Every structure is written in structure tokens, then in C-alpha cells.
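idk why but the lab printer keeps eating my pages so im just putting this in chat instead. protein + protoporphyrin IX containing FE:
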Amino acid sequence: MTERRDDTHGSHTHPAHSATDDANSGRPSVGRRSFLRNALAVTGAGGAAAVAAACDSRPAATADPATAEAAVPAFHGARQAGIAEQAPPGSQTIMTSFDVIAADRGELTDLMRTLTDQARRLCSGGLPAAVGITGPPSDSGVLGPDVPGGELTATVGVGATLFDDRFGLATQRPTGLTTMPTFPNDNLQTPWCHGDLSLQLTAADADTCVHALREITRATRGAMQPRWRMNGFISPRRPQGTPRNLFGFKDGIANPAPAEFDHRIWVAGNEPAWTAGGTYQVVRLIRMLVEFWDRVDILEQENMFGRARDTGAPLSGNQETDDPDYTNDPEGMVIPLTAHIRLANPRTSDTDGSRILRRAFNYDRGTDAVGNLDQGLIFLAYQRDVRDQFEAVQHRLKDEPLVDYISPFGGGYFFILPGVRDEKDFYGRALLT
Ligand code: HEM
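predcted complex ->
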């Protein structure tokens, strides 16, 4: 397994600090259209062909993406990367949402082309065309003189607000795409919620993610604006098996198998044709009240989840891979009826249709105003139907004992766009053209 650093997680940018640099800096403001010039620079000087060649030569994902440590998946494909493949232990991520400020459908289309060009370059490696000695460098240089390929995974989604009256897309809205509601026990804060566009950048190293975000925001400035952002990480294996969350429990053990993704995760059926290859993304930013948690005795902690903390095994079993046995425990003597795993997935035929694909990351963003540690989970779930899957699970969990130790404060619902198929394709092409 590759050695990974585990140090740099945790910094964040509050939305209030992210949007007004030019107004405050006294520097000339970057015009709405400047992202177009960047787009041209990226693909100039033979860049497109070179980048495309590099994309296609990258290693493909491993055969069993839900369980194996996947190689960084290829950029081009019918589906976007970052969903079917579980990011390896030790991965870093930036989860971010943007407000689109493009003026019209034409500018939105330009934005999507630019975003695609940048993501393609950043995922596959290479530099944009030089702008000459009088211009700023074409790349920030954070990753050195050459941007290495095969290290970054980018995943792009769109929110329900993109389908309002600004861009004439109302009739094309994915049928189940709504604005995330407030659930019981939520503490949602508007600056941490929703957005027109979601972008997740994942890599082994934090600087790879930071560099990608920097290049993307520079190239798209004037057309989209960061709304909220959270850095996250997946722990290394401690000591083996599934990585752990910040309550010390293995998190991400029970997920649908890859063979089930076609009927549980990727959309089909009653949807606009352009959505083929996409899926619904639910993001929940959930603070974990670790000071309180650390005062709870181990038996109560394990009963809250229904699994042993050390091994990850269900309380009815010995290993993390064992299925929990509810059939022989109808009264919850072994795994309480209120345990997180039992409520989330009772493993009955009635609830089978609500299974979701979870791809959570931990976050650590320092301390709050009163000196408590500000840690939690970037909960990410994928499904073909948010109401029947995520919302059904969320509803079953609404009074679980764990709610006293967690506080959801942000996130949103997004539709993950179909993949970028080749060097001529771009994010949302079938939607916009
Ligand atoms: C900070 C909040 C949360 C924490 C700390 C947490 C932690 C865990 C842990 C430790 C497990 C057991 C290991 C595993 O199978 O991955 C688990 C399972 C699961 N969680 Fe969560 N979870 C959280 C929020 C949620 C939310 C919001 C949902 C959905 C609404 C959810 C749905 C599930 C599901 C479906 C399972 C698998 C159950 C199974 O199939 O046996 N969790 N979670």
C-alpha cells in the first residue's frame, strides 16, 4: 500500500471569506468573461490532443471497486469517477459547492467546457499553454513545474437551482432533484447548504486537491463562485479492514455490491434522456460532538451503532464482514432495535429498496468559538432515487440514540452529471446542447 501523509486535513474556508477578494484587495477585478480566455489557453498549443492521449493511457479502476483500493480511475467514461470506486485509505478530499453566476445559457455552456478542460488536464497531467513573460504563470506551480497525471479524481454535480429560470433548463430537471429539506434534529446553516454545482476533488495528497481547486476557481472566475467548502480525509487502516470515523468506529463497511449499482445507484427510467450515466448525490455535513461522545461508556457506544468498536463486527458476529443477524434477535437483545445499523438497514424485503451507496470522509476544521473540537463527517450517499433511498433511511434514523451526539449543519442534494466520454465531450453536454 502506498505510504500516505495524514497531517494536512482540517483547514477550511468559511464562505464569508471566499467571495470578495477583488473588491477588497484593490487589484483589478477579473471580468465575467475572463474564464473563457483561460479555457482557450488550456487547450491551446496542442494541449487537447496531448491531454486526451494522456487520459486514455491512465490505469483503469480495479475490478471490484467497492472493496478494492482502486487505482485512480480514468477521466473519460460513460460515468464520472469518484462514486463506484471507494477512495483508498488515507485519501484527502475537498468537497465544495458553487453558485453559478454566468449570465445566460451560452455562458453556462462555456463554463462547463472550461470546467471540463481543467478537470481533464488536472486529472491527466500537463500544463496549460504559457502566456508569455508579461502574463502571470499559467499554473500556480503548487505541484511543481509539471502537473502529474493519474493522481486526482474530480466529480461534478448540479443542484436543483440550476434548473430555475436563469438558463431555460426547467423542463430538463432530473425528476427527483429537489433542494435538501431540513430534517428533524438538523441545525442547518444557510451558508453551508445547497448550491448550483457540486465539485469533489480527491487524491492521495492534500496539495493535489488544493492545487486543483485553485486552478479550477481561477479558470472559472466570473462564471461560478465558491459557496461552501469542506476538506476531508479517510483514515488509514487502523489496524486493518475498513477505515475509521472520528468516533473510532469503522465506517463504510456495509454498502451495496458493485453488481447492484446498476439497479440501485445509476439512474434509469422516469428521467430526462440526458441524465443517463448520472446518479443523485446527497451531501450532509455532520458535526460529531466528540467531547460528549468520549464520555460515553464503550457498551453504550457499541449499542448505538450495533457494531464492536475494535473489530467493526456486528454485535451478533465476529468479523466486520459478517452480516448482522436480526432474524434470531427479534427483540434486540444482541443488536438493539434502535442501533444505527439496524434502523438504517433492517435487512428486510420491505426496506431493501432503500439501500444507498455511502462514501463518507472525516473532517477536522479546528475548534469552535468556545474551544470545542470541530470534527465530523462529510456524509456522501449515492442513489437513483433520493426519496425512496436516502430520505427513507434518514426517516428511520430520526430518533436513533446517535442524534444526541451529532449535528447536521450543511450539505445539499445534487445530480451527478453523466461522464465525459472523450476529448470532445464536456460536463452536461447532453443537457446544454
Ligand atoms: C455522523 C453521522 C454518522 C455516523 C458517525 C455514522 C456511522 C456509521 C457506522 C459506524 C456504521 C457501521 C459501519 C458501516 O456499515 O459502515 C454505519 C452504517 C450505516 N449508516 Fe451511518 N453514520 C452516520 C450518518 C448516517 C446517515 C445520515 C445515514 C443515512 C441517512 C447513514 C446510513 C447508514 C447506513 C445505510 C449504514 C449501513 C447499515 C447496514 O447496511 O448494515 N448513516 N454508519
